[in-house]
Amino acid sequence: MPKELTETQKKILDYLIERIKGKGIPPTLAEVAAHFGYRNRATVQQHLAAIEKKGYIRKNPKLARGIELTLEDKFFVPRPVLGEVAAGNPLIIYPDAIDTIELPTIARMPKDSFLLRVKGDSLKDAYIFSGDIVIVNPNLEPRNGQIVVAILDDAAVVKRFYKKRSQIELISENPEYEPIIIDKKYPSFKLVGIVVGVYRSMDASPFIPIQRRGKL
Amino acid sequence: MPKELTETQKKILDYLIERIKGKGIPPTLAEVAAHFGYRNRATVQQHLAAIEKKGYIRKNPKLARGIELTLEDKFFVPRPVLGEVAAGNPLIIYPDAIDTIELPTIARMPKDSFLLRVKGDSLKDAYIFSGDIVIVNPNLEPRNGQIVVAILDDAAVVKRFYKKRSQIELISENPEYEPIIIDKKYPSFKLVGIVVGVYRSMDASPFIPIQRRGKL
DNA sequence: ATAAATACCATACATTTGTATGGTACAAAA
DNA sequence: TTTTGTACCATACAAATGTATGGTATTTAT
To answer: Which domains does chain A have, with CATH numbers?
Structure first.
């Protein structure tokens, strides 16, 4: 189990992850220093040593940009989950990250997307379940039938989106939930983004392994 | 549209991609040279110049490992799908990639994992559906109750794994399918890996947007 | 009270790294 | 035939890079 990081160390690690996952190129000491306004590389050097000691990265000695994320080899990388979102009844969405899930290393986010954990079962007919992580892109125009995340009276919902002449309808796949109809002028409605993908980790299995034997 | 690459250039580009996506660190000229057995960096230097000229990479001048993949700066990154795997009845698994899916940029794979597209519905009670992409890690020891991919008589299956004294059981979540019982000595059985995650793209929506209005 | 960890700065140095330049050999195109 | 492109080799060099060492100030644990 990796040890706790200090504030500064965490910031630096986040930057490393951002650079490695985002650009594909780990930064040099000089670049990290520049990014944080440090006057010299030795400072970064020491922070990296500390982060490495705590087990989050591995440094290839003598090699330029020789920073590897060790967490990556464990297949999981911490990603912030911005909030929980109701597939059924609205839930509160938090301004900051409420949690960090261990998205597998398959987890490089498009830089403008973010993650939300789904609570509730109103999307079960669309094969999205409570506990799933949805990848939300805020910079896409919604088309009819797409699954979107929207804020409604300070709560967030995940629903299927339909735009009509003068109103927007948010429909659950699950017939137990009533469609939400929004007049276009409705003030507290805001479209957050479009669900571009769903990810579910199999690691901490939410399923109880039922010892089902033989035929039924 | 990028121009055609020569054989050598393609090999080098493949290596670059492998390094950037796999390790997260682009190689230096020296490393590329070593990998291909070149006696000096200038050779690589010239190949890279050619590849850049043809538009596949961008080089940050003067910067160590300053190689970026130009094709990558989009939302989706092509990833090879190694085969299709049956959640219900066994299907054939192909030695090479059968397809390339556009995994979202959230998609950087752990280097030893690979993707399989699921066909069939025997795992629907585990919320895995036909068309989903499962992320499979071949280097983990399976624990009871985990979902695994296994090869059985040249066909691959996705099932829940249970190890008993002298036999292994592969069980479907879906009661319609019979459990598969394998004697430990069974020759043609091979465990491929453990399903560590499921990804589903919402992009090419498999669902027909049903115009369901009002209450039912 | 003292030790240890954190968070920086500055300077120095050997290597690594990218790049420039020049050369050879070969095949295909003009 | 000459030119162009590909595929290598060798040497040289400035800048980038990681690392070592030493220092100060502050906070946290003992």
So the answer is: 7-73 (1.10.10.10), 76-199 (2.10.109.10)
